[in-house]
Design brief:
The chain has 5 helices and 22 strands. The chain is mainly beta and 445 residues long. The chain has 2 domains: 58 residues; 378 residues, Porin (Beta Barrel), CATH 2.40.160. Strands 5-7-8-9-10-11-12-13-14-16-17-18-19-20-21-22 form a 16-stranded antiparallel beta barrel. Strand 15 and strand 16 form a beta hairpin. Helix 1 packs antiparallel against helix 3. The radius of gyration is 26 Å and the shape is globular. The protein starts with a strand and ends in a 7-residue tail after the last strand.
Length: 445
C-alpha cells in the first residue's frame, strides 16, 4: 500500500492480497459455510477471481508496439540480436542507383557481427501518462554505436479517443516504420525504406492521434517533428517536418483481418548529406541535397488466423508503396571548384511480402522489392556523381526466409536475397538470432 496525501490508498498488490484473504475466509469460515450452500460459495469465489483478473488488467498498459507493462513497476527488457552475413560482392561497394543513401542504409559487415540489439525501459508513470526509453546498440566499421531511438511519454486517459505522444519516437509514416527492427519479418528493410528513409525514420516532436469509437477500426493522426533526423536534416528553430496518417481496418468473421492506410510527409529547408564516397584518389566528395521534400504512401495488410488463433497457423500479406518528390540543389562538398546542380526528382518504390506460419515453431516468408526514379538537373555529371542517375538500371530484389521459433522469446532466422538493386547482382545470405530477456512480452509472429 502507498500513501496519498492524508488518505491510505491501496495499491493493486494490496487489493490482490486482501481479496485472496477474503476468498479464503468465505471458503473456510465454519459459520459461513454452514449458512451458505456450496454453489453459493463457488459463485462468490468466481466473483473474486474475476475481480482479481480485472485489477490485473487495470494495472497494465499496452503501447503501439504491443508491449504489456504493469503499472508502478517499470519494465526493463533487453533484445539480443546478431547476424552472420555472406555476400558474393564486396558489401562496401553497395549503392542504390537513383537514390542517395543515408541513415542506416547499407549492408551489414560480412561474417559475424552485432545486429540491432536494444535496451528498453517502459511503464506507467501514473494514471495519466506512460513512458518509454529505448537504446540501440549496433556495429558500424568495427565500432559499437549507441543511439537513443525512443524517449517519449504518452497519455493514457486523455478521453474522446484522443492520444498525445511527445519526445523521440518512430514516425507513423507508413506501416513498417513504427515497428522495432526485431519485430520485422525479414532481417533487412525493404528497398523503398532503404532508399527513402535510410531504413527507418525517427525524430523528436509531438503526435496527436484519434481513434474513432466505431465497430470498424479508424485512426487518424498528425505529427509535428523537428526535421533534424534523416531523411529531413538541417537545423530548424521550430517544426521542420510534418506528417499525417490515416488507417482503417477490421475483422471479417473470426479468421480474417484487414487494414489499409495512407500517409504523407512534408519537409522544407532540408540539408541532407549522403555517406561520403571517393570521387578521385586525392579527395572525398560528399553529395549534399538542399531543398524541399514531399512523400506520399499507401499500405494494405491482410491476415488469416484460423478461428482467431495465430499461435500455430497464420498467413499475412503486406504491401506498401511510397512516392517522393524533391526540388532543390545538389552540391558536391569538398569539390574544387565547387560542383553543383539543380535537382528535380521523382522517386517511388514498393514491396510485397507474404509470411506463413505452418507449425507452432516454424514460419517462412517471401518478399519482392522494386524501385524507380526520374531525376533531372542542370548538370547530369553532378547528379551521376551523387548516385542519382540510374544509367538504365532499375533496382529490384527477391527474398526468402525461414525461421525457427522455439519459444515466445527466441528466434533463429535464415534468409536469402537475390539482390539486383545495384549494377552487380548479389547473392546474400543472413543467419540471424533474436532473443528477448526481461519483461519484454512476446510479439505476434
Amino acid at each position: 500500500m502507498f500513501r496519498s496525501g492524508v488518505c491510505w490508498v491501496p495499491s493493486p498488490a494490496g487489493i490482490h492480497a486482501a481479496l485472496i484473504l477474503l476468498g479464503t475466509i468465505v471458503a473456510c469460515w465454519p459459520g459461513l459455510s454452514s449458512a451458505a450452500g456450496s454453489d453459493d460459495i463457488d459463485r462468490k469465489l468466481d466473483d473474486i477471481d474475476r475481480r482479481l483478473h480485472q485489477i490485473e488488467e487495470e494495472g497494465r498498459h499496452v503501447d503501439d508496439s504491443g508491449h504489456l507493462d504493469k503499472a508502478l513497476n517499470p519494465a526493463i527488457s533487453v533484445i539480443l540480436d546478431g547476424v552472420y552475413a555472406s555476400y558474393k560482392n564486396d558489401p562496401d561497394d553497395y549503392n542504390l542507383p537513383g537514390f542517395m543513401l543515408g541513415g542506416d542504409a547499407g549492408l551489414a559487415p560480412e561474417g559475424f557481427s552485432l545486429g540491432h540489439s536494444e535496451i528498453i525501459f517502459s511503464g506507467n508513470i501514473d494514471d495519466i501518462f506512460f513512458g518509454k526509453l529505448s537504446v540501440a546498440l549496433s556495429e558500424h566499421d568495427n565500432d559499437i554505436e549507441v543511439e537513443l531511438e525512443e524517449a517519449f511519454f504518452e497519455t493514457l486517459s486523455l478521453g474522446g479517443g484522443f492520444n498525445i505522444r511527445g519526445g523521440r519516437f518512430y514516425s507513423a509514416i507508413g506501416y513498417l516504420n513504427q515497428q522495432h527492427r526485431h519485430v520485422w519479418d525479414f532481417y533487412d528493410a525493404p528497398l523503398v525504406y532503404r532508399g527513402l528513409f535510410g531504413d527507418q525514420y525517427f525524430d523528436d516532436g509531438l503526435r496527436l492521434s484519434y481513434a474513432a469509437p466505431t465497430d470498424i477500426f479508424i485512426k487518424l493522426g498528425v505529427e509535428a517533428l523537428s526535421g533534424r533526423k534523416y531523411p529531413a536534416g538541417g537545423e530548424h528553430n521550430g517544426v521542420g517536418n510534418w506528417t499525417a496518417f490515416a488507417s482503417i481496418g477490421g475483422d471479417i468473421g473470426n479468421s480474417h483481418f484487414w487494414q489499409a492506410g495512407l500517409s504523407y510527409m512534408s519537409a522544407d529547408d532540408i540539408e541532407r548529406e549522403q555517406a561520403g564516397h571517393e570521387h578521385s584518389a586525392a579527395a572525398e566528395e560528399v553529395p549534399l541535397f538542399t531543398g524541399d521534400s514531399r512523400i506520399s504512401g499507401a499500405n494494405a495488410i491482410y491476415e488469416w488466423r484460423p478461428d482467431g488463433d495465430h499461435h500455430d497457423r497464420n498467413v499475412k500479406l503486406q504491401f506498401e508503396y511510397f512516392n517522393r518528390e524533391e526540388n532543390g540543389n545538389i552540391t558536391l562538398l569538398n569539390s574544387s571548384p565547387v560542383e553543383t546542380s539543380t535537382l528535380d526528382s521523382n522517386q517511388d518504390g514498393w514491396y510485397l511480402q507474404a509470411t506463413w506460419q505452418f507449425a507452432h515453431s516454424w514460419r517462412t516468408g517471401i518478399r519482392y522489392d522494386m524501385l524507380d526514379s526520374d531525376n533531372n538537373g542542370s548538370d547530369p555529371g553532378v547528379l551521376d556523381e551523387a548516385g542519382l542517375l540510374t544509367n538504365g538500371h532499375r533496382p529490384e530484389r527477391a527474398s526468402i526466409m525461414v525461421e525457427w521459433i522455439p519459444g515466445q522469446y527466441s528466434r533463429i532466422r535464415l534468409q536469402y536475397n537475390r539482390d539486383d538493386s545495384y549494377q552487380l547482382p548479389d547473392d546474400q545470405v543472413y543467419l540471424q538470432y533474436t532473443f528477448s530477456l526481461g519483461s519484454h512480452t512476446a510479439h505476434t509472429h
